[in-house]
Amino acid sequence: MSAAGQRIDRGRTLGARHDLGMSLTALDGETELFRYTYVPDSPQLESPKPYLHPLRTRAGHVVSLFRPHDHVWHKGIAWSLPVVEDENFWGGPTYVHGRFYVQLDNDGEQAHRGIDRVSADDGAVAFAHRLEWVTQAGELLFTERRALRAEIVSDDAWALTVETAMTNVSGRDIPIGSPTTRGRENAGYGGLFWRGPRSFTGGRLVTSSGTGSGDDVRGGRHEWMAFEGRHDHVDATSLVLMVDHHENPQHPPQWFARDAEFACLNPAPFFSEELVVAPGETARFRYGVGIADGDAGDAPSLAEAVRGVLASYAADDGDDADASSDADASSGALIGARV
Question: Is residue 241 a contact partner of residue 234, using CB atoms and an 8 Å limit?
Fold first, then answer.
């Protein structure tokens, strides 16, 4: 291993490899379950933001897609917001009612500013960091603290918890919405967004009510939703599931989901109603993601397991004693390791 990386090892429980100042990789033995790139090299047009890719099942099958040619700003799983006041933190063109999508000079950046935690203990990998939401014109709108935690939930599945706390530092009300709140029908995407592999196109969407197509479930309210997809090259089916925490705004959320054109899942709290964040106010969201070697029939049990992870994992309040600056992170030392 190069001097740029450090490894935390826990045998067949989860471990992590930290490429300091760039990314964190969670390891299930020799299988890389995910890589979280928190300092991306994306161009401004794609609204630079941290992302999770590749994502893999415990068997090693990839269940995410990075920078597809049809939407180059789609990157695995990312916290992406297309309508923040009049700014775009999603990437690409902005929906303008009456003109459809227009490329504007408003593609903002979620800029990494410091690491609070890196750990691999108690059978889990955890990472927390601080970010700033900066418009293309250079205005700071939000500071954010984001925390991720991964753990194994069964022989065939693992769970990821994603938490975000965004504080409005602009000095004015900031509305967060979607293309639907700006006038485009049934296009309420925005939030924690997953883009699936090409081979998943035509797969099955699963809710507690059964299976359906994107046209059937898009805009509906559900606590959880899953996507069953098949892989090329191997005879295997995988399941990706998202659970909305009960304290999130608009719970249970409306969902933006597709199975035709491409595969995606997105619990969308701003689907049809803006959330206005007042000056100094903090908007908080928490999600659970389950990734399994399985099929639609496994969705209810996976949802129960992920729900249990959300219930048992205490909210990360940001009071880590091992909080560190980027200067520390770039020195080649492992930040906040508790092994």
Answer: no
pLDDT digits (tens, 9 = 90+) for 160-207: 999 999 999 999 999 999 999 999 999 999 999 999 999 999 999 999
- Nearest Cα to 48, choosing from 57, 56, 39? 39
pLDDT recorded at residue 204: 97
Provide φ and ψ at 208, rounded to 5°.
Answer: -65, -15
- Report the DSSP beta bridge partners of residue 256: 266
Distance between CA atoms of residues 181 and 328, nearest Å: 42
- pLDDT digits over 284-339, tens only? 999 999 999 999 999 999 999 999 999 987 554 444 434 443 433 333 323 223 22
What is the DSSP code (8-state) at residue 272? S
Three-class SS of residue 199? Answer: helix
- Residue 281 three-state SS: coil
Among residues 312, 313, 319, 311, which one has the least CA distance to residue 336? 319
Pairing label, strands 237-244, 14-19: unpaired
Which residue has tokens 């390891």?
27
> For residues 308 and 226, what is the distance between their CA atoms, to the nearest angstrom?
16
Shortest CA distance to 20 belongs to which of 5, 35, 38, 36?
5
Name the 3-class secondary structure at 288. Answer: strand
C-alpha span between 177 and 190 (Å, rounded) = 8
Burial of 32 (0-12, 13-18, 19+ CB in 10 A): middle
Print burial letters for 244-254: b (CB count within 10 Å at least 16), e (below 16): bbeebebebbb
